[in-house]
Specification:
By secondary structure, the chain is of the alpha+beta class. The protein has two domains: about 40 residues; about 60 residues, lambda repressor-like DNA-binding domains (434 Repressor (Amino-terminal Domain)), CATH 1.10.260. The protein is about 30% helix and about 20% strand. It has four helices and five strands; from the N terminus they run ββββααααβ. Strands 2-1-3 form a three-stranded antiparallel beta sheet, with no helix packed on it. Strands 4-5 form a two-stranded antiparallel sheet. The radius of gyration is 18 Å and the shape is elongated. It binds zinc ion. The site of zinc ion has 8 residues, from loops. Zinc ion (ZN) binds next to loops.
Length: about 120
């Protein structure tokens, strides 16, 4: 659910802003009065109530490709195992695309690496 004030970030709470009851993100919450905290409705995202944010480490692409090569796996092997397109895997390895957390977790598990850290 998007923030109804800025529309840019995920809403984390319901707040009264200028008399209106809106879903707001962490930033826009400051403009209103907190009415109710929203719980993560989509546990697959894995973020725990916005306390910590998971970010990809610097050089995650190199880590992924080195780990894959270390396991003597081709991009195609990985693609079949994880059900991710070859193109996406190539993009992750060249860091032109960032995997979402769910995919990053799969890659971590499969390749035995750590590419997500808490900010
Ligand atoms: Zn906002």
């Amino acid at each position: 659910m998007d923030c109804e004030v800025c529309g840019k970030r995920e809403a984390v709470a319901i707040a009264i802003v200028d008399g209106a009851r809106l879903n707001v993100c962490e930033t826009c919450l400051k403009f209103g009065r907190l009415e109710k905290k929203l719980f993560d409705e989509n546990p697959e995202r894995g973020f725990d109530s916005g306390q910590t944010e998971l970010v990809l480490i610097d050089g995650y692409g190199r880590v992924l490709s080195a780990a894959r090569l270390g396991k003597k796996m081709t991009v195609q092997d990985l693609c079949k195992k994880l059900n991710i397109s070859e193109r996406d895997i190539e993009k992750f390895e060249s860091e032109s695309l960032k995997p979402i957390e769910k995919i990053a977790r799969k890659l971590e598990r499969e390749l035995n690496v750590k590419i997500l850290v808490e900010e």
